[in-house]
Amino acid sequence: MHTDQRIRLGVVGLGAMGRAMLDAAADHPDVEVVLAADPSPAAMERSRAAHPHLAFTASPDRALTGDGVDAVYIASPPATHARHAIGAMKAGRAVFCEKPLAVDLGEGAEMVAAAEASGVANALNFVLSDRRAAVKVLAAVRAGEAGEVLGVEMRFAFPEWPRAFQRDAAWVAGPAQGGFLREVASHFVFLTDRLLGPLDVADAAVDYSGAERFAAATLRAGDVPVRLSGQVAAVPESYEWTLYGSRRSYRITGWSRLETAGAHGWTPVPVDDGPHGDERARLAEFARAVRGETTTLADFAAGLRVQRVIETLHLRNREQHR
C-alpha cells in the first residue's frame, strides 16, 4: 500500500452495480481507483463519460493483478466471480465482490479456500450488512429485546424481472446466473444468517419462465422456522423481512424502513440517527478490512453459507421434478 494509505483499487465490471461503486469510489477518502475494466466498449464509454480522469481497459486481468493495485472490486457476472477473485487473491490482492459469491457451489468453496490460503481481506457486498434498519434489529435481538425468536418470514414481489435498472445485464434474466433468489433473497438470507446462524433448506418449490416466476421455501436456523416466498406478477414491487419474537417483533420493508410490534400493532422506528449504509460506507468498511481492522462486511465464508441456501433451493426443486 502506498504512503497516503488510500487503497489503490481496480474495478472489474461496469454494469449497474459497477457504475454505482465507481461513482462512490471516485472521490472517496479511503480509496483511489487506478483502473476500471469491462470488455464491453459501450459500458466503458458510459463510465468514461462520467469519470474522464480515470483509466479504463477492456482487460479484467490488468485491473485484477496489475502493478499499483492493492485491492479489487468485482461486479462482473456471477459465473466469472471465482476466476477473477481467485486470480486476484493469489496475486495478493484484497477482494470486494458483488453477490452472489458464485453460482457453482464448488467454485464458491474454492473462493473461500483461496481466501483462507492467501490471508487477504475478502468481502461480499450485502447491502444489509450496514443498512441502519438491519443494524438496529441486530442490536435489539442480541440484547434480548425480541425475547425468544419464534420465526422469520421473507416476502418479495416484482411486477417485472429483471427490474428496469438491470435490463442491460442479460444474465440477470436467466436461470443460470440470475433471478430474484440470487439477486434479492440472498441479501435477506444473509441478514437471517447473521442473526440466527446457518440456515438449512427443509423444502422448496420454484417455478421458472426463464428465471424464477414463483418461489416458496421453508428453511430452518436451528429450531427457528424461516419462510421465504417471492413472485413476479401483476403486483407492486415490494421487499419485506419480518422477525417474530415472543416479546417484540420487527419488520423491515423497502430495504430501509423499520417497524416494531408488540400486542397492539406495528409502530415505525426512526432510523435516521446513524449512517444509512450505502456503497460509499461499505467502501470505507472494505478499506478498514484491508488494513486488518474489524468490519461489518460479510466475508466469503458468510457468502458461501448464503450461496448454499440459494443454490439448494434450485437443486431441491430440480430433484423434486425429475
Explain the layout of strands and helices.
Blueprint: E1 7-12, H1 16-25, E2 31-37, H2 41-50, E3 56-57, H3 60-65, E4 71-74, H4 81-90, E5 94-97, H5 105-118, E6 122-124, H6 132-142, E7 149-158, H7 180-196, E8 200-209, E9 211-221, E10 224-232, E11 238-245, E12 249-253, E13 257-262, E14 265-269, H8 279-290, H9 300-320
Helix pairs in contact: 4-5, 5-9, 7-9
Task: Report what the structure shows.
This is Putative dehydrogenase. Residues 136-250 form the GFO/IDH/MocA-like oxidoreductase domain. InterPro entries: Gfo/Idh/MocA-like_OxRdtase_N, Gfo/Idh/MocA_oxidrdct_glycsds, GFO_IDH_MocA-like_dom, NAD(P)-bd_dom_sf. Keywords: Oxidoreductase. Pfam families: GFO_IDH_MocA (PF01408), GFO_IDH_MocA_C3 (PF22725). With 322 residues, this protein is of the alpha/beta class. The protein has 2 domains: 7-125 and 279-288, NAD(P)-binding Rossmann-like Domain (Rossmann fold); 128-276 and 307-320, Dihydrodipicolinate Reductase, domain 2 (2-Layer Sandwich), CATH 3.30.360. Helices cover 34% and strands 28% of the residues. The chain is built from 9 helices and 14 strands. It has helices spanning 16-25, 41-50, 60-65, 81-90, 105-118, 132-142, 180-196, 279-290, 300-320, and strands at residues 7-12, 31-37, 56-57, 71-74, 94-97, 122-124, 149-158, 200-209, 211-221, 224-232, 238-245, 249-253, 257-262, 265-269. The strands form 2 sheets. The chain has an 8-stranded mixed β-sheet, with helices on one face. The protein has a 6-stranded parallel β-sheet with strand order 3-2-1-4-5-6, sandwiched between helices. A hairpin with a 3-residue loop joins strand 11 (238-245) and strand 12.
